[in-house]
Design goal:
Blueprint: E1 5-12, E2 17-24, E3 29-33, E4 37-46, E5 49-58, E6 72-82, E7 85-91, E8 100-108, H1 111-114
Antiparallel strand pairs: 1-2, 1-8, 2-3, 3-4, 4-5, 5-6, 6-7, 7-8
């Protein structure tokens, strides 16, 4: 099970790649971002299986999206957790036909979880 906490998100499409951070909170809430975009969404995990829907909005027009010219979009993802990391794939209805993948690795867990 993915622990609540901060994760590095390395992501890619055939158009480009990038990385950012995401924070998982109890109840499945996700918030995060990178130099050009913010991420807000929800995830659900049943055993190792994960599903998520994330809204991505551009906050700095100097950074290009890995989906091309879109500046605000939703990504629907499914994947699996394995020993604290996760690999998910999906698509955005705002960029049909562009495959998206993300690999999550933990950076920090809340102090209450680390004790």
């Amino acid at each position: 099970m993915l622990s609540d906490g901060l994760y590095r998100a390395r992501f890619a499409t055939p158009i480009g790649e990038g990385s950012g951070v995401v924070h998982f909170f109890g109840g499945g809430q996700i918030v995060g971002g990178d130099s050009g975009f913010s991420y807000v969404g929800r995830m659900k995990q049943v055993g190792p299986d994960i599903s998520a829907s994330i809204r991505v909005d551009q906050h700095d027009p100097g950074f290009a999206s890995v989906f091309g010219p879109v500046t605000s979009f939703t990504i629907n993802l499914t994947g699996r957790e394995d020993r604290g990391t996760a690999t998910l794939t999906g698509v955005s209805p705002h960029a049909p036909g562009v495959a998206f993948s993300v690999f999550l690795t933990p950076l920090a867990v809340p102090l209450s979880a680390a004790a």
